[in-house]
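Morning, I've got a small favour to ask if you have a moment. You're getting the sequence in one-letter code plus the fold written as tokens. Thanks so much in advance, here it is:

===
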Amino acid sequence: MIHIIGAPSSNAKAVFYAYRELGVDCKIILSPAELRNSNKIVLPGVGAFGALSDFLHDSRFIQPLRSLLDEGVKLLGICLGMQILALESEESQGHKGIEVFELKCKKFEGAKLRVPHTGWDQVSITSNHEVLEGLTAEFSAYFSHSYYLPVQTDLTLAVTSYGAEFTSVIAKRNIFGVQFHPERSQSNGRKILSNFADW
């Protein structure tokens, strides 16, 4: 069973339907009590870092999540759900993330860049991982974001270039994150969702 955290304004339903199409048993959960006995968790997210941070803290998800992750439960963070695994974001000063990755989300800057970075772009794999199995070294995925995690060689598994290189896939032990939306990335995205279910 994959538990999908149904934060307000998230893409939880889209992830749920993507998994249902893959024949994977899953459930959207709205309270930390429903995390009991989880062995796989998906944390999707769209919108503002501060809003997701407030939801997770106010709903008391943070401590149960940290405890489960310390126990080895596997988690997939999607888009903002990946960013919230960092310490904080330039988007929402004073709001804390889950603090799994000792990184800070930064805003895209550059006169020629359209922000948000939206649409299909290339993902270049720099390190192998079980969740990336079956994908080519460069594959396309669908993005929609204004902030990003910088590249950190011991954590970053794939990069995308938009003005400069940023982290599009990240992992640390039992925690895996993607900046793009696998539920909107057709066969490449379905492969990642399927691999995570099998991981």
About this structure: The chain has a mean pLDDT of 96. The longest strand covers residues 117-125. The chain is about 25% helix and 30% strand. The helical segments are 12-21, 49-58, 62-70, 80-83, 186-198.
